[in-house]
């Protein structure tokens, strides 16, 4: 299937799945704004894309194997890191906990004035 409503729906569902897993939100282009592709905004990660293929990423899964992450790079291109979504979710949850602990331990003047 190369176009039409089916692939669009499949892509939208995958974007929603990613947002639900990572606590993100989908962004949409609005008239009057600068050109921006539809994307996903995830706390701590930023703006990202989601790609879903039937078997387009099989080699990445093979290379990743039982490792925690896979670092890849084309010649003269920036490095990319591939990891399982569940592992990334754990990292994001740990970051959120650290942020909460830091805010709880804050003894700054603004907190004392409350």
Query: Could you tell me the radius of gyration in angstroms?
Result: 19 Å
What is the total tally of β strands? 5
Mean pLDDT, to the nearest integer, reads 86
From the structure provided, what is the oligomeric state, counting identical versus distinct chains?
single chain
Would you tell me the structural class of the helices and strands? alpha+beta
Give the termini separation: 59 Å
In N-to-C order, the SSE pattern is HEEEHEEHH
What is the element layout, followed by pairings?
Blueprint: H1 5-22, E1 25-27, E2 39-42, E3 46-48, H2 58-64, E4 69-72, E5 80-83, H3 85-104, H4 109-112
Antiparallel strand pairs: 1-2, 2-3, 4-5
What does this structure look like?
By secondary structure, the protein is α+β, with helices and mostly antiparallel strands. It has two domains: 1-52, no CATH class; 53-106, no CATH class. It is built from four helices and five strands. The protein has a three-stranded antiparallel sheet, covered by helices on one side. Strands 4-5 form a two-stranded antiparallel sheet. The longest helix has 20 residues, at 85-104. The radius of gyration is 19 Å and the shape is globular.
Task: Please name the defining characteristics of this protein.
two-stranded antiparallel ribbon; 114 residues; three-stranded antiparallel sheet; alpha+beta; 43% helix
Outline of the structure:
With 114 residues, the protein is α+β, with helices and mostly antiparallel strands.
């Amino acid at each position: 299937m190369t176009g039409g409503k089916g692939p669009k729906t499949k892509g939208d569902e995958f974007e929603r799945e990613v947002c639900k897993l990572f606590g993100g939100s989908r962004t949409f282009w609005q008239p009057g704004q600068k050109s921006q592709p539809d994307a996903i905004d995830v706390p701590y990660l930023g703006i990202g894309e989601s790609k879903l293929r039937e078997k387009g990423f099989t080699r990445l899964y093979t290379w990743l194997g039982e490792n925690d992450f896979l670092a890849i790079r084309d010649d003269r291109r920036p490095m990319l890191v591939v990891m399982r979504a569940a592992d990334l979710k754990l990292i994001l949850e740990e970051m959120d906990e650290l942020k909460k602990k830091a805010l709880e331990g804050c003894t700054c003047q603004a907190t004392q004035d409350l």
